[in-house]
Specification:
The chain has 344 residues and is an alpha/beta fold. Helix content is 32%, strand content 16%.
């Protein structure tokens, strides 16, 4: 199957493109939001091709993955086909609703023929998708391996654009948590807050695993993949008990609470007791590998993509490939691993 999607969320896309399909990501001059192309800080397979808008009009696509309202517009403009009607379409919702939740309607609520896939049950619970069909496919990540050493008596945090996102990502809480011990902030724009940014994923994993404990200060986002990556690295985690965290971090793998003083005390204990930290980190890895492994994630997506493509094809959509054959894309024709992407 050939899948068109935009490079919006680097970590999620890295897992998604590990499947057994061909993947097309748009690229535009300057690699702006409309087309970042391939990632620069992640290892993507050669089955991911980047194509310009002028090339997409002549490209057969079985399913379109959209993640923003803008993607719907670009699909119709660049493919010349209406998402959900002329080409099968899935909306992947990464975020929890922002604003006055009781009054918010999902952008896909009024879009005919689009399946909304939430990445957490929390999102499915809180978003009002109207009559749009919904399902949940929980995160899966590429196992980074058990790298934890905890040799540095320091706290690791990964937040992209922490300065801009402020209270949503708990940026205002970092000074309070830093009272427990030295804290290293990683992520896009982290340098503006004295942190470390633009680190390739493999190097980031090595750096995280050297820290004694991982902190997840997020108030209101879906579920940070960096949290799951830290757990699979074998790190103990300390996190605000908000959104999907209460499902992701069971007892014995870390400490969750809405009381900052409880979390600060937990950080102090992990920093002071390497054996305690390593034990909880090992349990965290076992849990995260089981619940957020790559294989079940890809299997659920295979089922969903096939169902969406078949359903649209039965109603005159573009789900089926006529004739059974087509020429393969020139995967990687634009060369290697152009830079672009995020850390979360």
């Amino acid at each position: 199957m050939r899948v068109l999607l935009w490079h919006v969320h680097g970590s999620w896309t890295t897992a998604f493109v590990q499947g057994a399909h061909e993947y097309v990501v748009p690229v535009v001059p300057g690699r702006g939001p409309d087309g970042r192309g391939r990632a620069r800080t992640y290892d993507w397979p050669d089955t991911v091709a980047e194509l310009g808008p002028d090339e997409l009009a002549d490209t057969e696509v079985d399913v379109v993955i959209v993640q923003r309202p803008r993607d719907l517009e670009l699909t119709e403009t660049w493919l010349g086909r209406r998402p959900g009607r002329d080409v099968p379409c899935v909306w992947v919702e990464h975020n929890a609703p922002q604003g006055r939740i009781a009054e918010l309607h999902h952008p896909a609520a009024g879009t005919e023929g689009v399946l909304v896939v939430h990445v957490t049950h929390f999102n499915d619970l809180f978003w009002d998708c109207g009559a749009a069909p919904t399902t949940v496919i929980e995160h899966g990540i590429v196992d980074p391996g058990h790298r934890y050493t905890g040799e540095l008596e320091r706290i690791a945090v990964v937040v992209n654009e922490a300065r801009r996102r402020g209270r949503v990502t708990g940026t205002d809480l970092l000074d309070r948590f830093a009272q427990a011990g030295p804290l290293d902030l990683f992520g896009i724009d982290a340098a503006t807050l004295g942190g470390i940014e633009d680190v390739p994923q493999a190097q980031l994993h090595d750096e995280l695993a050297r820290r004694r404990v991982y902190l997840h200060p997020i108030r209101w986002t879906s579920l940070g993949l960096s949290l799951l990556e830290a757990m699979q690295l074998g790190m103990p985690v300390v996190a605000l008990a908000t959104t999907e965290v209460v499902e992701a971090v069971p007892p014995g793998t870390g400490v969750i609470s809405t009381d900052v003083s409880v979390l600060t005390s937990a950080l102090r204990r992990y920093l002071a007791d390497p054996q305690h930290a390593a034990g909880h980190g090992a349990a965290a890895r076992e849990h995260a590998r089981g619940r957020y492994g790559l294989e079940p994630f890809l299997a659920r997506w295979d089922e969903t993509l096939a169902a969406v493509a078949d359903g649209a094809g039965q109603h005159g959509g573009a789900g089926a490939v006529e004739g059974g054959r087509r020429e393969p894309l020139a995967i990687g024709a634009r060369g290697g691993m152009p830079r672009g992407g995020d850390l979360s």
